[in-house]
Predict the structure.
Amino acid sequence: MEIEEWAASSGGSSDSEVTAPDSDSEENCYAYGDLPKLQFRKDTSKACWKEELGMAEIVSNKGRMWTTTGIARGGKIYIFLEDILFLAEIGALHLLDDEDKCIPLEDIYKKVAEGVGGSSWESFEVYRHLKSLGYIIKRHGVCWSVKRDKRVPAFVEGESGSQRIINNGNADLSSITATTELFSAMQITELRPVFDVYPPNSKFRKSNPGNPIFVLCISTGSPPTKKQVEDLEGKCDGVSLKFCYVEHGRVSFFSFNQIELPVLP
Amino acid sequence: VLITQPNLFFILIDCFYLSNHRVLLILNNFHLHHRSKTGTISESDFYLPRFLHTIFVPISSSISAYRRQVLMGPRWKGKGSEAKALAVPISRSILDLQASLIESNSHGMLSGCSVVLASNAEQTDLLNQTCFGRPIITVDKDKQWFQLTFEEAFYLCFSLRCINIVGGDNSVKTKDQLWEYMISKKPSFPTFFKAYSHLRIKNWVVRSGCQYGVDFVAYCHHPSLVHSEYGVMVFSEGNGNDRLRVWSDFQCTLRLCGSVAKTLLILHVNKTCENAIASPSYLDGYSVEERTITRWNPERCREDQVIVETRNNVSRQKSDSISSEVLTGTKMEREMERIGNESGQFWIFSLL
């Protein structure tokens, strides 16, 4: 599915490393009354909100976005709040409650404000920014898919160590929610890996996703110290790391790469 | 087949010419019975067999699986600069400078936070070529005068041993006296000097970076031939983040660096002993780690950059032909993507 680049909100700066002049003066300032409005798509998917999981279960999937969004468990797709809000904002998803009534956007914003399911406004802004550009994003520590009839117990990666999962979709999901609860309870200023980011890829397969191009840590306070960077690199086992922070709706990304300058002739 | 050390050898799969006198060798590695602790090949494990050293200089290698190293070649100024630079490497100019200063028994004069040095015609050229000191314009017809920073002066005196330095009383200062004096004027001198010499030992040209809001700027050759590659900041353990404390500091410094096309390089100087360093011999106990801080722009993630990725031992590929096509820019990336998906390991070499 083509995710078009949306003009408003968390647009990244287009600073280049070379001599191009600053081109960030093109802020989108709207005069009163001329804000664009998005239309609902013809083929809107439907998802059912599961309060106990803090996630939604897809009940009707339309469009090709589902190859790159959501995690597969027991033959179904589940999505986190950031996926929900992103798709709801652009009219690609109807979120339904237990009585099949559509949950309005306002209530979804409320859930994010409350930090339901380990979500946060800042992490949503980061998610939206990258997703709009076509990147494929998954929460760190969660597997893309767990096969239904797997004999070998599936492992969920996580900072708390692997957890043995019974051959049961629900047990796996509740362990995910347990982990996200843990994250929510953590200090807000603590730096941790939040998303695994994969490059745009029309042939992406959840069953064989390959490796992310980087793991993203979101900083809410000060920039990381060298020690923090090293600790996180150790945890991420060879996958490269990026750090970002959100300020006033702008997301900035940074890499702290270890290098070794060559000895010149 | 290139055999680099017992049980570690590479098969040359393919070879491409890149722009800027660089060659891309696609190698497939078989490391039998050889694994480092982390299961990856470290840079020191890999060295070219002797005959290849006369043709290639490795300028890039990626180390652990999935770790990417962004390689940006030096930006030479105009045609012919790169050739000039390769013809007379900085290391040779420094050796010549060293010899000349020793022969003339040169003495520098301590003055405040500088050292003033007289030079003859030959030394003037060499000091300019190697970017030690700044020439002072005077009417003196017999001598040229240079002023050196503490780092430059101490490097010439202590590391290269080619000048002596005298104090106001005309007595030659010992290394320990000089050290003590310089620290008294500039308490951060030990870490700054360690960082400075770390770069100079690798034959990088190092100049002051204060007008760019950084400590040093590093060039891979003379600034007239090449644009600087790195804006360097020196952090010491413990008070590293008092220079870049909040995100706006990062934005500021990166903005400055970016507008002059330099990459921000942090040199973390680690002291192994906490005691006040009484003597420069303690410098051996310091270590330096290099880290770049770069902005990542998701809109422009792949443009203008060569991404080098290694994968361990995936599959074998045979190729008898050597491509003579010149690969640049996006075409090169596409080629590397294609190759990366199949097999092998990338190394970029510079032709000597």
Remarks:
- Residues 89-186 of chain B form a domain with the MutS, DNA mismatch repair protein, domain I fold (CATH 3.40.1170.20).
- The mean pLDDT of chain B is 73.
